[in-house]
Design brief:
Distance between the termini of chain B: 11 Å
Oligomer: heterodimer
Number of strands of chain A: 0
Number of helices of chain B: 23
Largest sheet of chain B: none
Largest interface: A-B, 43 and 46 residues
Largest sheet of chain A: none
Low-confidence stretches of chain A: none
Radius of gyration of chain A: 19 Å
Mean pLDDT of chain A: 94
CATH topology of chain B: Amino acid/polyamine transporter I
Order of helices and strands of chain B: HHHHHHHHHHHHHHHHHHHHHHH
CATH class of chain B: Mainly Alpha
Order of helices and strands of chain A: HHH
Strand content of chain B: under 5%
Mean pLDDT of chain B: 91
Chain lengths: 80, 493
């Protein structure tokens, strides 16, 4: 019985690997297509959602010194 | 003037280096390069035996849990540090490390001292070629005559270092990525074919049962938990800055958080798959567990030699072994080469050649001397590595802060939301468990009667070396940067 349970766990694990990989590649393809259609611009939170956007904006508001950071500048420039 | 300005900015803020340093051509190429930096010989041979001897499922379950709570958060931290740093460990920690800015050099020292691990790929290549010749009729004799010939072993070591220089020398896209795709896909295919053949042999179920049947009474013993933690630690590979350097070739709008998650799944999936290649064959051939204590280089030909078409399977398995090891070795060269690029601004090709020479210099002695090999393995594997992981977690998780990384770098352009649980694991669980493992090993070594320099004494020596190198390099690097800044200011005037 225990061996069958472990086999089931392993099959779920393998399934998760294949699913996450395919999902990840398809998202990157969508990002690329979106950038092609929008002159290289891409909303940074298109695939991480509004919660991530809100967290980012709250963080920048609370820590204004990070606005000097070029990565943060890039995110702000690309936001809709 | 522009060059000086760029030099200064590069050390302090995010500056996209994808044009100058090269970047990934395809997402799959990036993923598979990450996967096969983590997959090594530990997945293919050590894992199945460890699992089987430590309670089967009772080992596999905590192993998977430790991958999720310890190795994965650490590797995700490395990935985001590299993406932000746009350089190797020296450049990335210079940018985010604050007082720990010199930690990059300690990581380079770690990589240089473990150059001896390159010989494993050499053994695999020699046995792969030998499996096509009558030499493999007696694998034990073949192993003894090979390993006792220092000229041959030295030659093989140098050959593998030279071969490992090729992919990073060719560049990220044309070298590392292409090699990872061809070798990685072949390795997975071999393991799938091997597993399919093994589990369909008559009597294979006994091996599967031995491999996976959980002995829950063992699960909560310190031996099994520490063993599962160590396996999760060494097989995934946080601390070497390999994931940091590979992620530094990601463009600013490319995800690194989810990429590391697929790496965690790939590393464990391949380890689990390898178990299905080896253990069912052992039981189907009536060999039981007798081969578990032997070197894989002797055991595997003996094992597959019993099967119909055994020579082909031996060849394929050693080929998979070689690919698994080789795909790690060229990343080792790339990370070491990043030191010359980041510290002295050498061009990539010159840096990679210098890294090859450095690794030959560092790796020859332990390759030829088993005592030195084992001493290095203990000092750098058991003490230096966990200390490096702790310092990386402090630099990225506490000084730069995990919250800032997650909210301003990891989630923007990510392929899925990463929640605050990562902050918690990266700041507390990763350094906490790493310290626990290091102290547990030091006490265990001392108690087992090992020489003083391998036990607690060794841990103290390593702490001095690591912290000292970090401090001295940090000071030198800072002084150099001050000079750049002074030149920049005077040029502007």
């Amino acid at each position: 019985m225990g061996t069958y349970v472990m086999l089931a766990i392993i099959f779920v694990w393998w399934g998760a690997w294949v699913y996450m990989t395919l999902n990840d590649i398809s998202i990157e393809k969508k990002k690329f297509a979106h950038m092609e259609a929008n002159n290289g611009k891409l909303d940074p939170f298109m695939f991480t959602g509004e919660k991530a956007r809100k967290e980012f904006l709250d963080y920048v508001e609370k820590h204004p010194e990070v606005k000097k950071d070029d990565y943060v500048k890039l995110v702000l420039e690309n936001m809709n | 003037m522009e060059k000086l300005e760029r030099e200064y900015d590069k050390n302090h803020y995010f500056v996209d280096q994808s044009q100058a340093r090269g970047s990934w051509g395809t997402r799959f190429g990036f993923l598979i390069a990450l996967w096969f930096a983590s997959v090594g010989i530990g997945n293919v041979w050590r894992f199945p035996w460890k699992a089987a001897s430590m309670g089967g499922g009772a080992f596999v379950v905590p192993y998977l849990i430790f991958v999720i709570i310890l190795s994965l958060p650490a590797v995700m931290g490395e990935g985001v540090t590299g993406k932000y740093g746009q350089g190797g460990p020296v450049q990335s920690y210079r940018k985010i490390g604050g007082p720990l800015r010199g930690i990059g050099i300690s990581i380079i020292i770690l990589n240089a001292f473990v150059a001896y691990s390159i010989i494993v790929a050499g053994h695999a290549l020699v046995f792969c070629i030998a499996s096509l010749t009558p030499l493999m009729n007696d694998p034990g004799a073949m192993w003894n005559s090979y390993i006792s010939n220092p000229t041959l072993v030295t030659g093989v070591f140098i050959l593998i270092v030279l071969l490992s220089v090729i992919p990073p020398y060719l560049g990220v896209n044309k070298g590392i990525e292409k090699f990872a795709i061809y070798m990685g896909v072949t390795c997975i295919a071999i393991l799938v074919i091997g597993a399919a053949r093994a589990v369909t042999l008559p009597g294979a179920w006994a091996g599967i049962d031995y491999y996976l049947k959980p002995d829950w009474s063992k699960m909560f013993t310190i031996n099994v938990l520490a063993g599962a933690m160590a396996q999760a630690y060494f097989s995934f590979g946080p601390g070497w800055a390999w994931f940091l350097t590979l992620s530094s070739y990601a463009k600013y709008n490319e995800d690194t958080g989810r990429a590391q998650m697929t790496t965690g799944l790939a590393d464990t999936s391949i380890a689990l798959l390898a178990g299905f290649c080896v253990l069912p064959v052992l039981f189907a051939m009536g060999l039981g567990t007798d081969l578990g204590t032997q070197s894989s280089f002797v055991a595997l030909p003996m094992l597959f030699g019993q099967m119909a078409g055994g020579r082909i399977f031996t060849f394929l398995f050693f080929l998979a072994f070689f690919f698994a090891a080789y795909t790690c070795e060229y990343v080792l060269v790339d990370v070491t080469g990043s030191f010359f690029q980041d510290a002295f601004q050498w061009p990539r090709k010159k840096s990679i050649l210098a890294a090859g020479a450095l690794l030959i210099a560092f790796g020859l002695w332990p390759t030829l001397n088993e005592t030195v090999f084992n001493t290095y393995d203990t000092l750098f594997g058991l003490y230096f590595l966990p200390m490096a992981v702790v310092l990386q977690a402090v630099a990225a998780g506490w000084i730069f802060t995990a919250e800032r990384f997650r909210k301003t770098v990891m989630n923007p352009w990510g392929n899925g939301y990463i929640g605050p649980i990562w902050d918690l694991f990266y700041r507390w669980v990763v350094p906490g468990l790493s310290l626990f493992l290091m102290i547990y090993w030091a006490i265990d070594m001392t108690r087992s009667g090992a020489p003083w320099y391998l036990g607690v004494g060794g841990m103290v020596i390593i702490a001095v070396v690591l912290l000292g190198s970090m401090y001295l390099f940090g000071q030198w690097d800072k002084a150099k940067e001050q000079r750049v800044l002074a030149n920049f200011k005077s040029a502007r005037r």
